[in-house]
Specification:
Layout: H1 3-9, E1 15-16, H2 20-26, E2 30-35, H3 47-58, E3 62-67, H4 89-103, E4 118-121, H5 123-126, H6 131-137, H7 144-148, H8 151-160, H9 167-170, H10 172-187, E5 189-195, H11 199-213, E6 218-222, E7 235-236, E8 239-240, H12 250-258, H13 262-272, H14 277-289, H15 295-308, H16 311-323, H17 330-335, H18 338-344, E9 350-353, H19 355-360, E10 362-363, H20 364-369, H21 378-386, E11 390-392, E12 395-396, E13 403-404, E14 414-419, E15 423-429
Parallel strand pairs: 2-3, 2-5, 3-4, 5-6, 9-15
Antiparallel strand pairs: 1-6, 7-8, 10-13, 11-12, 11-14, 14-15
Helix pairs in contact: 10-11, 12-15, 12-16, 13-15, 15-16
Length: 430
């Protein structure tokens, strides 16, 4: 596989330095991509860069994942409005290990192949460098005029940031350049990958290598991922979509991809999966013939959930997704873990009921209209039960004189009520 060709048809090349393609065709090349370690999980905003590393390795080259332990401690002017918090070393190392486990689902770190992936941390070569050494060995090779000309700096100076640009942030590009210089010198790294907002920082590194060592180094960036409606990719009302199942459940992760727009689905299939050009074209054709079946979104959600989580998590997410719309999902509902159950019924009306009263048994009409407000009156509840329009935990209620007790609790705490075809309620026993 040819790395540049592969990224180009997938729409993953924004800017590339002249000579990059020739370097990759000449020999196995080492490239790195920087990752911010301020959390112990990646989110889907990182995925485009991670996929670039994965394609790079698949094409026979050697990827380095650089954890920005040093640069992550200060602000980066490219698109960021606030400086970051200082991490202590224990937190930094914890985050690094957690991120490596996630990257291991995409990259081969463990084989004896010459192009096996490696993880490096710029804190390791930056922590012992004194300010005077840095100023003498690095700072003198890059002029302030050169640094000021960067778009990221100009935007901040022209008022995009309320508080201006601190000296710390201004030096960020020098620190990132020092990373590239160090990896070039010590590991033969010839290419840096990143998002298009990093172009200025990356080219500072290539310039430092040229001025200090007389060497040739290259840069390639991917576009920043956008949504068709102009909204920020990867953000939901509850925040980032994380790869860690404790932060974003596999069900919610699956739902995110399932619900992308038709116009975004084909683009995301190219960027975030390893499906071939022919497979994606066939899916697009199938989608055009029957958009209501959403074949592109379904395949996208399957590929991503399986890759980031597992086949089992994907199947559980599909089953959980069917619960709201299926009348035969009683067993699936009982098998849900609490996190997924709450995700499935997020936003539905919720009522608190007494667990002790439930243990003694509550007449179902009292449960529906007195202990909760699923119905405004017992009379209305009775009519709908008799008409077959009420389900308890996905089992149709037929007897208005029935009693509900603690045996009906899901996970020892919840009861799901469905009223008609579309109204859902969750009773929480405390």
């Amino acid at each position: 596989m040819d790395f540049i060709q592969e990224l180009t048809w997938r729409g993953m090349v924004h800017t590339m330095m002249p000579g990059t393609d020739e370097q990759l065709k000449k020999e196995m090349t080492t490239a790195y991509l920087g990752i911010d370690p301020t959390a112990d999980s990646l989110h889907i905003g990182h995925l485009c860069g991670v996929m670039m590393l994965r394609h790079f390795q698949r094409c026979g080259h050697k990827p380095l994942a650089l954890i920005g332990g040093a640069t992550g401690m200060i602000g980066d002017p490219s698109g960021k409005s606030a400086e970051r918090n200082l991490l202590d070393e224990a937190t930094l190392r914890h985050n690094q290990e957690a991120i490596k486990k996630q990257l291991a689902k995409f990259l081969d770190f463990d084989s004896d192949a010459p192009n096996r992936a490696e993880m490096v941390n710029n804190y390791d070569w930056t922590k012992d460098v004194t300010f005077l050494d840095f100023a003498r060995e690095i700072g003198k090779h890059i002029t302030v005029n050169y640094m000021m000309a960067k778009d990221s700096v100009q935007k901040r100076l022209n008022g995009e940031a309320r508080d201006g640009l601190s000296f710390t942030e201004f030096t960020y590009q020098l620190l990132q350049g020092f990373d590239y210089y160090t990896l070039y010198k010590e590991r033969g790294c010839r290419l840096q990958l990143g998002g298009s907002d990093q172009w200025g920082n990356i080219t500072t590194g290539t310039e430092l290598i040229r001025r200090k060592l007389g060497g040739e180094a290259y840069a390639l960036t991917c576009p920043l991922i956008t949504k068709a409606d102009g909204g920020k990719f990867g953000k939901t009302e509850s925040g980032n979509v994380w790869l860690d199942p404790e932060r974003t459940s596999p069900y919610k992760f699956y739902q995110f991809w399932l619900n992308v727009s038709d116009s975004d689905a084909e683009k995301y299939l190219k960027i975030f999966t390893f499906l071939t050009q022919e497979e994606i074209a066939a899916l697009a054709e199938e989608h055009a013939a029957d958009p209501g079946q959403r074949p592109m979104q379904k395949r996208l959600a399957k590929e991503l959930t399986t890759m980031v989580h597992s086949e089992k998590d994907y199947e559980a997410a599909v089953e959980a997704s069917a619960i709201l719309f299926s009348n035969k999902a009683a067993e699936a509902l009982r098998n849900l873990d609490e996190r997924t159950l709450l995700d499935v019924f997020e936003g539905v009306p919720t009522f608190q009921i007494s667990k002790s009263e439930l243990e003694a048994g509550i007449p179902v009409l009292d449960l529906l209209a007195v202990k909760s407000q699923v119905f405004p009156s017992k009379g209305e509840a009775r009519k709908m039960v008799q008409a077959g329009g009420v389900s308890v935990n996905k089992e149709k209620l037929t007897d208005p004189a029935a009693t509900v007790n603690a045996d009906s609790l899901l996970g020892g705490k919840y009861i799901h009520i469905q009223k008609g075809k579309k109204q859902h309620f969750l009773l929480v026993a405390e």
